[in-house]
Amino acid sequence: MTNFDYQIVEEAAKQLYIRALCDLPPDVRAALKKAYARETQPTARAVFEAIFKNIEIADRNRSLICQDTGLPIYKVKIGSQFCWNGYQIKTRLYEGAKRATLEFPFRGSSTHPLTRVNPQTSVGPGLPVIYYDFAEDSDCLDILMAPKGSGSENMSKMQMFYPAHGVQALKKFVLDTVVESGANPCPPGIIGVGIGGTADLVMKLAKDAILRPVGQRHPDPEIAAMEVELEEAINATGRGPMGLGGDVSTLAVHIEMAYTHITQNPVAVNTQCWPARRSRAIIHPDGNVEYGY
Amino acid sequence: MAEYHLQSPFSEEDIRQLHVGDIVYFDGLLFGIRDLTQIYMFDQHHEPPVSLAGAPCIHTAPSLRKVEGGWEKICIGTTTSTRMDRFTPELICKYGVRAIIGKGGLYQPSLEAMQKCGAVYLAIVGGAAALETQQIEAVEAVYWEHLHPEALYQFRVKNFGPLTVAMDSHGRHLYEEVKAEAIRRLPEIYKKLGV
Predict the structure, then answer these.
(1) pLDDT tens sequence across B106-132
(2) What is the ipTM of this complex?
(3) Is B147 helix (H, G, I), strand (E, B) or coil?
(4) Is A182 in the same domain as A145?
(5) Smallest Cα–Cα separation from B71: which of B4, B159, B136, B1?
(6) Which of A50, A181, B117, B150 would be B36's cystine partner, CB 3.0–4.6 Å?
């Protein structure tokens, strides 16, 4: 195990980025089909039909689903029995994301925020975004990858409410944020909601929420009920696919929760576009890599 | 809702027959423009080296590969239009552009220019770059190459669509109508949510 070849992590990081960009997860495909089945407006149905054609072409040509190859995010879950070198994992993810961009090749979107210089590598200081977590009873390295496009990311919003504002304020905030964002986040996608935590954690929770398979409910029944309630509320607005009007404005609302301070009541929304791209690799200690979603 | 199959460049008549909610496909000429293309054109006063009259313009920053004797497409998708609103009235009324293709729509000054000079806004399905890339048959020219990937691109397209008429030359604005309807419904939705 001490001889683990970290080149495997670099190769996986590269493959994960490319796979995510070209192959939409089955749960997203199924959710889009289900949404199409209940959509009644003709223009909205035409949007869905173009979406399905697009997915088919990307499958056939192994080409990009969307031109916005986004900023790379890796969520790494390290098994309790996986003997790891954290520095190696971090640098290999960086290299893998960069190699995906240069070797595929696709447009890199990472940019210096002041000079706006784009190195065309999708990485740079602070990128890729990497989150680390740990799993009990596992000897694997589990990596979830998501390229996050700007149309949806630009619609992110958070607010520190007070306890006196209650749960109602959180619900209203989510609904108002979605109504305001209109066509920009390429609906119908996933509405990720973070509740609780600190200012930084609440947005991270919202990001975690969009990375769940579509429609997988939160294990807490109270939160799951709130997901359904908000989903129905958002779809009742009639904003529709691409903001052009219709019955389906979102595929799902996902909520993640953390405990917060007695004086705080934070909420965050992170939207995901209809190409809710993600890919996953489970790396075994013997170097075997299993790809999935 | 009617469906139209048009040939670009468009005549004023082609465009005036379109109404909000109609679906359009077209063949022929298409220009690609973006923020920088229009900053260069309007703020830095460079005349386009090719006539835009009658043509549709799509908001894009394409991924292209330079090859022997031209350019090859890698991936061509569409970006949000609202950022480029301020250039649009002149693009339409001074240069004769008949259609803007993008996502998210444009504002009132662009809608007024569309009414006055005969142009439409055609909404594409955002994120559907694989389809769009396939429908672009050729990159015929890249003007102002130093601005790439925000240069002025001349594409030839086949059966380009589906595009939804989201702003027409009769003063209707689909995005605004859908938003107004959503706002009209909000009080009832709030009540149901208990907020």
Answers:
(1) 999 999 999 999 999 999 999 999 999
(2) 0.94
(3) helix
(4) no
(5) B136
(6) B150
